[in-house]
Input
Amino acid sequence: MHTLPKLNYALDALEPYFDRETMAIHYGKHHQTYVDKLNAALVAYPDLAEKPVDDLLRDLAAVPEAIQKAVRNFGGGHANHRFFWSILRPAPAVTGENLPAGNLTTAIDQTFGDFEAFKQTFTTVATGLFGSGWCWLVSDPTDSALKIITTPNQDSPLTLGLVPLLALDLWEHAYYLKYQNRRPEFVEAAWSLYDWEKINSLLK
Output
């Protein structure tokens, strides 16, 4: 059985950028629903139920057609959110811009020119996504290149053979209580919460 992962921080720890009420609903209700519906879809397939959700998504074509859509939607929702929570951390007490370091900085500079250019490109792509979905920074194992992509609904980069490094949930339930229709403000707020040390470790 898949379970809701424990957060590494309290529900109010991401204030004032992500509010407690949204986190309680987003994590405790939406994410839990993805977990529950994924488990329900896998009841009749105990061999698949034992597999990590990331493995199911990496080889989605091998999942029986009867539950493939459910695994794509609910398994993707579970994996995407679990990843998203894992790359966030409370904003540091010291004021100043939250910036990456180490190998990630080098890779970003090589691909985008510098961090500011990367941030502007990611922000433009995220704010421009039509409808519900996600914006990602991924590494492509075929050439080790960094790429910014979007996925609709709860589709996972894992299904595309890509390695997620950074994610932003752009479903309205992720931000509407605090930011209403002001998605650009939500995208900007997220930059204060990314755990660049964790993301750098993913790149390694």
About this structure: The beta strands are 133-140, 145-152, 163-169. The chain has two domains: 20-86, 102-203. The longest strand covers residues 133-140.
